[in-house]
Design brief:
Layout: H1 2-12, E1 14-16, E2 21-22, H2 23-31, H3 37-44, H4 57-70
Antiparallel strand pairs: 1-2
Length: 71
């Protein structure tokens, strides 16, 4: 049940609020091998909104770090 709840929360939680990009989308891209900030930005568009990444850079880096810690 926890995985289903986590999936729902990932889809609802916006990492990049300027471009409305979800945590789910960021995680998918990281799992496909885009494992640095610039690669994630290029693939998703995160960090290219109004704030130019001021709000989403740190959360994206945390997701990347967490992905590699779990491996």
């Amino acid at each position: 049940m926890e995985n289903k709840e986590q999936l729902i929360m990932d889809k609802l939680t916006k990492i990049c609020t300027c471009k409305s990009i979800s945590r789910y989308k960021i995680k998918q891209v990281i799992e496909k091998g885009f494992d640095d900030i610039e690669a994630v930005r290029k693939k998703t568009g995160a960090g290219s909104g109004y704030c130019k990444g001021k709000n989403c850079t740190e959360p994206i880096q945390e997701l990347i770090d967490n992905y590699w810690e779990d491996k």
